[in-house]
Structures are given as C-alpha cells and as structure tokens.
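Contributing new complexes? Match this layout with phosphoenolpyruvate.
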Amino acid sequence: MSNKFVYVFGASKTEGSADMKNLLGGKGANLAEMCRLGISVPPGLTISTEACTVYTEKGAESIQKLLDAEVRQGVAFLEKEMGKKFGDAADPLLVSVRSGSRASMPGMMDTILNLGLNDEAVEGLANKSGNERFAWDSYRRFIQMYGDVVMGLKPESKEDHDPFEAIIDELKEKKGVELDTDLDVNDLKEMVAAFKGMIKSRLGREFPNDPWEQLWGSVMAVFQSWNNDRAVFYRQMNDIPGSWGTAVNVQSMVFGNLGQNSGTGVAFTRDAASGEDIFNGEFLINAQGEDVVAGIRTPQQITLEGSTRWADLAQVSELDRRTKYPSLEEIMPEIYQQLLKTETALENHYKDMQDIEFTIQEGKLWMLQTRSAKRTGAALVRTSMEMLAQGLIDEKTALLRVGADRLNELLHPVFDGQAVKKARLIAGGLPASPGAATGQVVFFADEAEAWVAKGKDVILVRQETSPEDLRGMVVAKGILTARGGMTSHAAVVARGMGKCCVSGAGSVRVDPKARTMTIEGVVYNEGDWISLDGSTGKVYEGKVPTKDAELSGDFGKLMELADRYKRLAIRANADSPEDAKVARNFGAVGIGLCRTEHMFFEGDRIKSVREMILAQDEAGRRSALAKLLPMQRGDFEGLFVEMAGLPVTIRLLDPPLHEFLPHDEANQRAMAAEMGISYDEIKHRVDDLHEANPMMGHRGCRLGISYPEITEMQSRAIIEAALNTKAKGVDVRVEIMVPLVGTVREFNAQAKVIRDTIEVVFAERGTHMNYLLGTMIETPRGALVADSIGKQAEFFSFGTNDLTQMTLGFSRDDIGKFLPDYLKDGMYEQDPFQSIDQKGVGLLVKMAVEKGRAARPGIKLGVCGEHGGDPASIDFFHRVGLDYVSCSPFRVPIARLAAAQAAIGQ
Ligand code: PEP
Ligand code: MG
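Output block (do not edit by hand):
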C-alpha cells in the first residue's frame, strides 16, 4: 500500500489514468483518463480504494487523520481550477461526492450533489447565478440527499413514505400545485426550514453548516456504504470481493439546471439493445442528472435520427416532435457536434462501446462519466464482431469480450422487455434452463399432453419431476418445480431440451390433489396463466408476451472465430435424433452422452420396461428385453444417421429400476389392469425395490452386474444399429460407456458381457467394425484407481454430477434446502453442481487424467456432467488437459466460446 491516497484530475494536472482502476475505481480512473485526452471534465479528486480498506480496518477517525492534508491539498487544487473557494459565502465552490469501485456497482449508494451549500452560501449562489430559485432548489436537494444518505434519516417503516418527500407533498398540497417545479422560491425556503427542523427533531442533531464537516461526513458515508446490505448482496451476486473497497470521487459541480441553454443527458456510442453502430441517447433541458434517471419528464433524443425513430415508436407527430421534443442536434447544433466528436474519440480510445454522461452548463459541454456500456447478449456479439471488422479490436479481444453465458440470450425466446416491466412477479426460483415461457398451469404430465393435444400452451408445475414426467415436459412450454437444484431432474432434462425451466421455487406450495399451487397465500388453479423466465428464475402472473431470439450473422462469425482458437472439442448430451440435430446445428462434433434410459419412456415401450422389471426370473426378463431390442436399435440408428462421421457415446442403463414404476396407488392399479396382474403383486415389487438412498443404491453398472442380460440387450442393440447404419454407407463411430464404475473388476465384468455379445453379433453377420469401450469416471473411487481402470477402458468420461454428489456428500436432488445458506455464508462460492469445485472434485479429475494417461497414453478424456456447459468449469477442463466437454445442445455455442476463451487466457 502506498502513502498516497488522493489523486487529482483537471485541465492543468491529472494524476490518475484508465489503467489505475484498482486504485481509483472505474469512475475515477476514467475521469482522469478523459482529462488526459483533453476532454472538458469538471476538476476533482479521487480518494483511493486503499483508503476504504483503512476505513474498514481502523475506522473513520484514523482514516480522516491520514487523509486530512491530502484532501485539503486536493480541494485547494479544485479552488484554483475553478476560481472559487470552498465554503465561500459570496461565490462558493460546490462539489458532488460519489462512490466508484473497480467494478461498476450501480445503485450501491446515492450520490450527494451541491455539497458546500449552507444558509450563507445559498445567498451567494443566488447572487452569483442571478437565479434565486435555482440556488434554493439546489440547497433543498442537498439537504434532502445529505439527510438521507449521510445522516440516515429514513422512513420509519417500509410502509412509510420518504420523510422529505412527505414534506414536499404537504407543501404542494398547501399551495395547490402539482409539480415540484411549480413551487416558487419562498416555498423552497419554507421547505429548507422544514427539512432542517425535521432533521433536528428526528435525529437530535443539526444539519451541518460547515462545508468541511459536510465533506467528511459524505466521504465516510461512501466508505460505510461499501458494507451496506445492498452492496454486500450485489457483490455476492457478481463475485466481487469485499476486499476491493470503493474509491470516493469529489468533483466540482456543474449545473444543467441554469436555464434554457443548460441541460443534462446520457448517451451510448452504439445501440445497447441491438449493438447497431449508431450514436444515441437522451437529454433534458434545464435539469440535473437525476431528473433524467427519475423519468418524471419525457426526455428528448440526442440525434435527429434517434428522435425520428423515437417519434415513430411513441406515435408522436413530426410537428409535435419538432416543437415539443426536438433533438439536441436540432436545438444545440454546436454542442451536438462537440458531443459527437467526444463520443467518437472516447470509443476509439477505449476501443469499446461507451456509456457517457454529460451536462451542458450555460452553453458549455462537460463530460461527467464514461464507462464501458452494459448491453444485451445480442449487442455484445454484434459490437464485438463489428469492432473487429472496423479494425478497432483484434480477434482475441473480440472473443474475450463476449461473456460466454450471455450467448444464452441469443438462443432462447425472450420476454418482451416492456411487457415484463408491467408484469406481476409472484415467485422466484433457480434459473434452471433459460428462455421465456407462458402457459396455463397443469399439475400432471399426462394432463399436460392432453391439454397440448387440444392446442393449449401449458406450464407443467410439479413438486419435482421424475422420468415419468418426461412426456409432459416435452410438450410443456416451461417447467416450474418447487424443489430441486440446478442438476435436479427437471433442470437437467429441461436444459437438454432447451426448454425453459425454473426449479426449486421455494415459496410455491403445490397441492396436486386439489390441483392448486399457493404462493404467499394466493391460490392458483389449474388453467391459470403464468409466465416463467428461465434466465432469471422469475415467475410472473398471467401472460407475458415473448419474442423469438434472433441468431444474427455475427453470431455465426463469432462461433467460427472461436473454433479457430479453442483446443477442446465440444460434444453434446443428446438422447434423440431431434436433440442430436439441434446439437449438430449448434456445432457439436459428437455426442458425449446418450442416456439410454430416456429412450425407455418413448411411446409404449415403458410397458416392456415394466414387464422386464416385474419378471420373476431371467427367462421372463429376457422375453421382455427381446421386445425392447428392436426399439432401442431403431433409436440408435436414428442417432447414428444424424451424427454421421462423428463419435456417439452411448451409456448403458443407469437409474435405479423403481424410477420406471408408478408410485401412487391409482397408477399402480392402472398398470396392474393393463398388465393383467394383481395390484398387490405390483405394490409388492415396488416396495421391494424401495431404497433408502437410491442414488447410492442399485443403479449404474450394478444393474448390469445383477442382470447381465440388460447389458447384453443394449450392447446388441447398439452394435446391430451401428452395422445396419454402416451398411447404408453412413460413417458410424460408436463408443460404448459403462456407468458408475468404482473398481476395475466392475468394468471388466461388464466389458466381457459387452465384448462377448458384440463378437456374437459379428459372427452372426459375418462382419465386424471398430468401436471404443470406455467408462464414466463418476465415483470418487473410480477416480482414485483411474490407473488400473485406464489399462482396461479406452476412454473416460467424467460424470461430474455424480462425482460432485459423492465427493461432497451433497444429494443432487436435495441441495435446494441448504445450498442457499452455504452460498450466503460463502462456504462454497458457487453452486458446486453448476460450476465445478476445482479444489476438491477438480483435484480428483486432475488426478484421474494423469493416472489415465499414464496407464494408456492417448486415452480419450472428456466430461459429460452438467459442468461441461459451464464456462468457468470449461476453463478448468482446458487447463487439466481434457480432450472434449459434452453439454446440453443449447449450451454448445456457449461451450465453444468458453473453450476459445480458456485457450486464449492460458
Ligand atoms: C454425471 O453423473 O455427471 C452424469 C453425466 O450422469 P447422470 O447425470 O446421468 O447421473
Ligand atoms: Mg451419473
């Protein structure tokens, strides 16, 4: 830490620069940089983030002592630059005080404007400006902000009105006027007195008249705000470390509310929604910055073109536009030209789209802020690719600038931005699978199908979903579950289908019997309309209109560019030809996981699956399996055709068998009737299959070990399908995968069944073909003994869902209950089922990679857990040297970009 805490900026001297963001915060660093570029910026000083750290550690008194001399020097610099004195009664120097951390944290703390005013200085300002109303309005605004932010005068309860606004309302009522602007200077004087009186009576302290006391109070309030609940929460959401601290910017005031040749505005160098390369923004004449944000008056457009476009949308006639809402370009052409020159200079300098704030004080343009502009995912892609084409940035920068996750927005339908603002938010859950969905609530999968068959749009609402619900999930527009995490069934399946899903919405009480869900006392019935935003986890009442996402040409260009940089191959998890097709269109170069059990729910094959489970002996099972064989073979043929020329990894049956049986009496009775056996028999078998902990029970390769005939049937189906497809001239690349292996003997036992079966088929057909036989590494033991397994298995695919579950001892389906507490308290930084726990689970992966390669040089290594689609995890998998990641089809483009970013970052 250096001894210097204060850095000044202004026309004659500037100590900071853009690359000092860590020390000066984004705002301070950019203000300094603009000064260096010769742009008119009101002079100021930035107190560094290191001072904030000292404040947090040692308190206000200590830091004030440390800062005192430097701040006084800084203020003296401002006085010289502005030709005014701080605290001067005749012509006071007024300042604003604003926070500014390394990362922008909008709304963390309110701004203090007009600091330096008091009972004497307000008269000076009135004389000097020749505008008494302006002076008193500035004073009352200052007291209001200071009273709230620094002195902490807040409403007494959350139902109460803001105490300052209450006084303003009273005054307006007394005067019979509607707007603040209708109050005259005497009213404002009365308001100031009332504000001060209230502060005294409510807080027992006077509003400080001394500008230095005002300044120190404000600086400490900004430091303090770094640790208020709002800021802490924001930091948690955005992974911003608390140790960063905030800087404080003290800047000379300029006024946009000094009459008709003053004003204030906000502009973007390109369009923040579409990314179009068009300068745009809004301004207000005779206003302070906060008025633009508050949206009380209709702002005008900066450019003539923007103004015409706006008038079109707002249905304002050209005459009204020209007379009531003219553009800045029309009414202040010279200022407009200066602004245009400045925005171009700023964008060229920063080589990124900028969001700028400006004030015009009596015909002079001042820049108050510039920062890299927040924009939609579509705009990110477009601005990056266009800036690359314009030669502003290089390929690596273009790739790194688009947050891979932001591509989500380009891949799924989205809610109409305006409509969603008006919608009533009723609940929140995990943003399990992105997209926007609107439909009528149904509580059962079969009813979802029935409703959809009648042409209705439905949202399937369940406590949680199981494979039995799959058909309902397929037809529903979206899925809402009250329980479950990001890798719960509903979430995984929905993402695989690219279907909108909100999971683990804790406030939703589902009563399937009554066919109702209750959210905070409000009852929603079957057939009621709701809307889900799978990207934010928000649930709205009623129908919120959606619009289709657009896949622009720039998106394709970005993907091509990513492919040139990435090393990891990107495959998809897909269980049907339809999913495989989507995946291939999105650029997947293979299937990394086909979960064969998902095929067991298609059509009426569930009947044969159940027959197999209920069979008394091997002969019974074999006869049921014989019925399944042709169906499975057909499924695989479809996949091989769709993925011609690319590898397809097919995993043998994995889930515990009871997942295929109904659990409630009504469905068990229906099944009994259909199969011609007694209800008791079925109930008995279901009870028999019950397990205390099914995720660690009779599943994975353990099924094939108990019932080798299942493995036999599946191996035969796979290899027959492959031979049939190959015979048609298709290039087929088969990889067969054994799930949940923990010891090499398990693998060997299954490998023998598979190889023997395949040899029989080869002999029957008088032909043969190459195939790979590998294993999932998804139990901790499997990872620990990866060297011995690697000698036998030709590839590893890390099942990081189960590996996480078993390494952490967290049930994938129950984390919703405790994970929020863990995340809040920072015990895990992120949901470990979403982003791989690099230090723990990651270590097992790393070790197994090394052991696997040592045992079998050239062994193919991939990952097929949900982490395969998570950018931070992809970065990790790149670093540990995997060959590929496999993710749900809709995440393939995200993974392609993330893999390129990982390669560039290394
Ligand atoms: C895994 O465990 O990571 C995996 C891919 O298998 P599943 O999710 O089907 O258990
Ligand atoms: Mg698994």
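Reviewers usually confirm one structural detail per submission. For this one: The radius of gyration is 33 Å.
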